[in-house]
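quick q for whoever's on today - can somebody do inverse folding on this one?? i tried earlier but teh output was garbage lol. tokens:
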């Protein structure tokens, strides 16, 4: 995940980008991948469900109304109803990445 700025002022837009590869875990079934960005101020943006086995990106333009320090969290997960058996080169995943954005007055 990356951001166009890590320091901003209230109302200034910041571009948040999340990239990843979404693979269906070997042997898993009924997977419903999640790709989500929590902006740290109570707003969550969810990308449309990505097709399995593709490179994906989500881009959000966001601005903060109040000064403060915000932790932006990107989350991706495979979310399979039928888990994969042990082993395999594409295991189930549930990853998060974080960046901090400081909004100054």
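ok took a stab at it. sequence:
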């Amino acid at each position: 995940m990356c951001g166009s700025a890590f320091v901003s002022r209230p109302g200034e837009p910041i571009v948040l980008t999340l990239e990843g590869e979404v693979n269906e875990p070997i042997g898993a079934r009924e997977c419903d991948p999640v790709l989500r960005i929590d902006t740290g101020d109570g707003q969550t943006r969810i990308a449309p469900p990505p097709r399995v086995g593709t490179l994906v990106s989500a881009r959000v333009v966001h601005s903060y109304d109040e000064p403060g320090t915000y932790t932006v969290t990107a989350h991706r997960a495979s979310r399979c109803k039928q888990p994969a058996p042990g082993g395999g080169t594409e295991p189930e995943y549930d990853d998060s990445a974080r960046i901090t954005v400081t909004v100054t007055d």
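fwiw Residues 2-103 form a domain with the Immunoglobulin-like fold (CATH 2.60.40.10). also The CA atoms of residues 37 and 63 lie 14 Å apart. so keep that in mind when u check it
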